[in-house]
Design a protein that fits this description.
Among the domains are: about 100 residues, Thrombin, subunit H; about 90 residues, Roll (Pdz3 Domain). It is about 25% helix and about 35% strand. It contains eight helices and 21 strands. A hairpin with a 7-residue loop joins strand 8 and strand 9. The N and C termini lie far apart (about 70 Å). About 35% of the residues are buried.
């Protein structure tokens, strides 16, 4: 009996040592990995014309009088901005955040070798804060390898590479702290954010978040203003669909159901005598909208769309947003104590 325990203990320590060796090997290879990945990360420099108050007296009539008498010598003020991005394809497509380039009059991409290239905006998507840029190049450049963010696990090591605070290429590491995060102050309607404790600062926005296999699994987007070690990234699986649509159409078309929904908390579930809080409660139906025309009613609870379960209210706009205008959708709805099926043809979500 003692011998069995002893052998079991030895087996445990052997397995533990092997796991540590494998785990440590990945981290020991980090310098080589960073050298390999850095050329696919870019610095983004922007110039924008800042709006200024052209009022002299506060009264438009007297302002015009003074301008006629003394001339309008107000000169435009220029603001500089910095951000990060990554090379999506070897022919010069660059991915970044929309807020990095949104108000820019001039955009430059600085590659790892220091060369600077003028960039043009191919397309933007405000609802996911993504932008696709293009630079003209003669020779192919290093592009990133796309990973699978659906396979991420809490506690998995990640690498953030970017250009924070104008310091140049900077590398930080951390772990996946959480998935499916909602960020107060950002439009999380269409994004399940990845949370990481890899240090992110101003200027990291738009840069890539890599796994230890050297694959991009997220687009670094935001930091928590009131916390430390709390950064957020857009999952690459969600971003790729947007990027590809921007590449082809310059914008993203999304389906629109035409309902106002609310979450089902325990109190609402109890008052409606529901067995669970799953689903999205219809609080209002937009008159003449797609849901209205299909017969959806206030008080209905949407349980699924095209057989995809709606676990909470946040799930519905994300699933509808994956569909296109005029696309048919099958809703499973709880009305009172009865489940019914409603077929609806989606409208177009306006920006």
């Amino acid at each position: 009996m003692q011998q069995i325990k002893f052998l079991s203990l030895i087996g445990f320590f052997v397995l533990y040592a092997l796991s540590i060796s494998s785990y440590g090997g990945n981290l020991e290879n980090l310098p080589n990995l960073v050298e390999k990945l850095s050329p696919s990360v870019v610095r983004i420099e922007t110039t924008s014309i800042r709006e200024h108050d052209t009022s002299i007296t506060g009264d438009p009539f007297f302002d015009e009088f003074f301008k006629r008498q003394f001339g309008d010598n107000l000169k435009p003020r220029y603001g500089k901005g910095l951000g990060s991005g990554f090379i999506y394809s070897g022919d010069g497509f660059i991915v970044t955040n929309l807020h990095v380039v949104e108000k820019a009059n001039d955009i430059s991409i600085v590659l790892i070798d220091g060369t600077k290239h003028k960039a043009k905006i191919i397309g933007t998507d405000k609802r996911t804060d993504l932008a696709l840029l293009k630079i003209d190049i003669r020779n192919p450049i290093n592009k990133v390898k796309i990973g699978n963010s659906d396979l991420l696990r809490i506690g998995e090591w990640v690498i953030a590479i970017g250009n924070p605070l104008g310091l140049g290429t900077t590398v930080t590491t951390g772990i996946i702290s959480a998935k499916g995060r909602y960020i107060d102050g950002l439009d999380s309607t269409y994004v399940d954010f990845i949370q990481t404790d890899a240090a992110l600062n101003r200027g990291n926005s738009g840069g890539p978040l890599f796994n230890l296999s050297g694959e991009v699994i997220g687009v670094n987007t935001a930091i928590a203003a009131r916390g430390q070690g709390i950064g957020f990234a857009i999952p690459i699986n969600m971003a790729i669909g947007v990027i590809e649509e921007l590449k082809i159409h310059g914008k993203v078309d999304r389906g629109w159901l035409g309902v106002v929904i609310q979450a089902i908390n325990p109190e609402i579930a109890d008052s409606l005598k529901l067995d669970s809080t799953r689903g999205a409660l219809v609080a209002e139906v937009v008159v003449d909208g797609p849901a209205f025309k299909a017969g959806l009613k206030r008080g209905d609870i949407i349980l699924s769309i095209n057989d995809k379960q709606i676990k909470n209210a946040e799930d519905l706009p994300r699933e509808v947003g994956k569909l296109k205008p005029q696309e048919p959708a099958k809703l499973k709805v709880l009305r009172g104590r009865k489940q019914i099926t409603i077929n609806v043809r989606l409208g177009e979500l306006l920006i």
